[in-house]
Amino acid sequence: MHLEGSIGPELAMQLATRRGVELPGASEGVEGLRAAYRYANFQDFIRLYVAISRCLCEAEDFADAVAGVAHAAADEGVRYAEYTFTPMTHVARGVDPERMLEGLAQGRARARAEHGVEIGWVFDVVRSFPDQGMPTVELMLRARAMGEAVVGLGVGGPEGPQWPAAALVPVFARAKAEGFAALPHAGEQDGPASVAAAIDEFGADRIGHGVRVVEEPALLARVAELGIPLELCPSSNLVLGFYPDLAAHPLAALDAAGVKWSINSDDPPLFGTTLTNEYLRCARHYGWDAHRIHAIARAAVEHSYLQASTANEICSAQDDWLRAQLERA
After folding, report:
1. Domains of the chain, earliest start first
2. Is the model's pLDDT at 40 over the cut of 70?
3. Whole-structure pTM over 0.90, yes or no?
């Protein structure tokens, strides 16, 4: 999930009112804003995403945002979440980086204490602003020195040949040298070449989306052989118009090819979904039984950067869930 994109309409309204930010449709109240959480294309989505991001200015805003999205995640039964966060987007518009990091730390502590949700951070860079790459790594190091669980570096935003991966190669090399995982988005708006670049130039350890790798069989086989997990977000792909429905979605083809993957919700309120809905929707369409759902949930743990002790606790809870399902059957 993206932190900024996981902020629901009610919380967004509170933050916007606090900071005097005008959000689309908000003049008609929360319901007007809720209606704006529907759009026809990626550009409309980005406009709303950026507007919500402008509501985050001081430490308390970031803390409230983190605690708020953790509350929603806890309602879904989530025990651990890795949130992608784009720090330089905020710093570039004048947010004090120390206050921003302080707010993230406060919010993460509240998420644990108030909602029982552990958080790992993936700091990312917008692909069209490669100059923000090295400053992002510096912020990752500062956050880690504060005791924050920063697990990896990502890259998001627009994909295409006009934003070549070469500009970010030194950034990912530096991040990996500092012990961070490479967790780029790729193969969503752009085709298989984007996935190949994520692997060959960024040293990807896990890939956000990656669905268009199915368009090149040799690369698909390579991703499967390397065991690089994909973060699949079906509703996100459908809402943004990359595929018309689940019947056209590549999930089944990826699975048949032996690719590792997990189910994720990306920007849940912006895509009108929840993690639970993603599981239910896919289970109905693909005919998953309890064993299959359990295996997919387990894959999410295995592909994460969660500490072993908490991972074991979550796996045990998943096993309890499976036993309960089988006893009911």
Report:
1. 1-175 (3.20.20.140)
2. no
3. yes
